[in-house]
Amino acid sequence: MTVPAGWYPDPQDQNTLRYWDGGTWTEHRAPAQPDGGAQPSAGDQPGQTGPAQADATTPFGAPGQFGANSQAGQQASPYGSAPAPGTSDQTAAYDPTQVAPQAGGTPTGEQPWSPSGTGGPGGYGAASGGGYGAPSTGGYGAPSAGGYGAPSAGGYGAYGQAVPPPTNNSKTGLFIGLGIAALVLVVVIYFAVKLISGLGGSDPDPDPTADPTTQSDPTPTQSDPTPTQDDPTDPPPAGGETFVWGDTVQVEVPEGGEAVYTFVVEQPGVYWLSTFSERGEADPILQVTGPDGTEWRDDDGSTESDNTFDASLTIGLAPGEYQVRVTDYDDVASSFELRSGGQEAETVQPGEHDFSAADDGAWVVLVPVTDGQTIAVDVTDANEDAVAGITTPDGGYEENDDRRSSAPDGDRFAPYVEATAAGDGEAIVIVWGYSNAAVEGTVNITVE
């Protein structure tokens, strides 16, 4: 369908109205008036002497009908519509010498129109079925939608409210172009900054650094000298002599040190070792170690020396070599005598025996045993508090003073002791009085 003739916004100037003759744009233009001002009506045609009068009470006519004040062959063309799709501006450039159409004026050679009503774009105005000035083709009503420069199919209001058809100079296109250009500029700036940052943050020619794997500590050209033995912090042990029972040894104890000797026992028996020193000059400590590691030790137990700080040991020993170590309690250098004595024992069989021990003496016998046998000594009767001990062939030693609760019944002060032999040989049985006092009584020896 074609767009009816009428005044429309000039596609080249949004502030100007231009007359559309139904087929092309004319050269007739008029300034657009602000809202509320006098506007050329849709029925005003260039060349009219006065505005077309429309009967406001007359409804829009149907196709082939006219309104009360309409002229034959004229169709209503309200302001706000645009040229039909596919049409173009065939007029010459705007000539300012031309006089803008006034109300009622018509361009020369053109037939004026008379609207049948005040319908807006998209409304259906009355149209003749082929009268003068009617569209050559198409039906009745508003122009078709779509197409560049064509008016919208939707209705428009009065003049001044219509949206002009888009043109090549549309501000929307300008804004879109400016937006795209701004976006491209931002992207270019971003990558330029990244490139500059990358070039400035790296050193193309870094200073050479030493490879840590290629460096090593210098190898010493001289080997470390062979370490020499440090001087001992303790003085070497004195003594080193070997003696048997009955010998007297002159002991020299170095300051902070010790004197070591070897005591040889050829026969099983009871043997004693005692130190003799001047009062106030020494405080000896005596220690004996057997072949199996058994140790005997005394500090102030001597009863024969005038110096109560002297040491003394009385023990039953099997044949063998025993280490004797002598030190001073105050770690001072000292000099004194070491005396020895002993009593060889006779061999007896298990059973009941009478015993008697003098002051500082002991009753000593040997009892044959085999490996794994247990020998027991039970003092059944004694006139004084007695002490009993057993030395096994391997050097082990057990001793008892007062009977334990696990022992067989007997007097509380009558000792009971037992030991297991490790190896074949003779066990040494010893009985003496408490505090080396004289004692006598009866003893029962069993071997199982």
TrEMBL record:
InterPro entries recorded: DUF2510 (IPR018929)
Show the segment(s) annotated as Disordered: 1-124, 200-242, 284-307, 389-411
Domain of life, source organism: Bacteria
Kindly indicate whether the keyword Membrane belongs to this entry.
yes
Q: Where is the composition biased (Polar residues)?
A: 67-78
Keyword annotations for this protein, in alphabetical order, are: Membrane, Transmembrane, Transmembrane helix
Q: Where is the DUF2510 domain?
A: 5-35
Write down what this protein is called: DUF2510 domain-containing protein
Where does the sequence pass through the membrane? 174-193
Gene3D superfamilies recorded for this chain? 2.60.120.380
Enumerate the Pfam families for this protein.
DUF2510
Task: Give residue spans, biased composition: Basic and acidic residues.
Answer: 401-411
Which species? Ruania alba
Biased composition of type Low complexity is found at: 210-230
